[in-house]
């Protein structure tokens, strides 16, 4: 047998001795029951367990609240972990029973999960661990259990051993207060994602707040002012409105063809509301509007953005008697109350699909504003915004404006990008001929689908050109 094999055999044999021969001594030193009894001053199985439950997305909030509670003046804590099969899905009572009767669980390492708490920032949060804490003369043992996709555990749980049920309830009330006061979502922009394993909410995604100015928005005269007054103006004058008995909750619908700048306008409004918590739901994730409204109510002032609402205007929610999902959205809006400083911003490319639902639920949306195709002054401003660094002369710009009648802001952005690419392929600076070549290509028959994808109106194919199956 080679030296390396002998060394490996020796290591495995020592592990065997540690696990089998010396197991009794090790378990004695690492006994969960003895550790809890020493800390609590009583047999843990004789103390009632009080539970608290939280949404999976609140995992970081619960972790931070525990750290703050136990770290405040007059309190101390120690964090311990467990080893043993089944600890993740067993309740604390089951863990204590198994540890007492079968020595199934012993002290081990604490489990952690890295969770996003801001754009590009993660926090190591306890996903399974027991806090042994003190508050003056009182002793607590608190099990924090995070969600687990592996075991189908879809929430965050706290299980508390305390001197009395009343003390445990006071403790959980203190944790709830700290979650509200120091919520990591406050003032952030976030979106919901669906769970990979069920129909519930998956992780949150944090987004950086845009930095757009008024000059970055190209809309017809007066349109941006109306939009800003409805969303930003109410926020700025909230105290005056409240004193006059006026409600703060408001709903705004932005409608118009694809590519005209509805999402860009939303980004501008987010720039103008730096202290607002914003929850963005798009398409299928609009089904999480109930959770979004609950979060907005808790963290107001808040903005709930519902993009592409037309995608759910005819969707069916079978739990609601086959009502369109949009009705649920509107009902959630209505349930917030007039004094809630929450703004709802809906966008759609198909106002005709939304109108019947909105008419049946009046008052949820206070204002509808069209974001139309850009007119001549608008197209000129758009080309200046996106293509200003091309250095084209005034006559060249006017030719572009004339040829782009009926196009969108998205079309202009693609035109400029493609012009720069043409020039880069020649390894020269962008010139008027590159813009003309890009325009010729984008307006050609072979780019018909591209124009439709960029929101250009009047680009439906002729009936005679449609493909039909043979036979």
TrEMBL record:
SMART domains with a match to the protein in the record: AAA
Gene Ontology terms, MF aspect: ATP binding; ATP hydrolysis activity
Gene3D superfamilies named in the record: 1.10.8.60, P-loop containing nucleotide triphosphate hydrolases
Pfam families attached to this UniProt entry: AAA
Keywords, ordered alphabetically: ATP-binding, Nucleotide-binding
InterPro entries (alphabetical): 26S_Proteasome_ATPase (IPR050221), AAA+_ATPase (IPR003593), ATPase_AAA_core (IPR003959), P-loop_NTPase (IPR027417)
Stretch forming the signal peptide: none
Domain AAA+ ATPase: residue ranges: 248-375
SUPFAM superfamilies assigned: P-loop containing nucleoside triphosphate hydrolases
PANTHER family with a match to the protein in the record: 26S PROTEASOME REGULATORY SUBUNIT
Family statement: Belongs to the AAA ATPase family.
Full protein name: AAA family ATPase
Organism: Streptomyces coryli
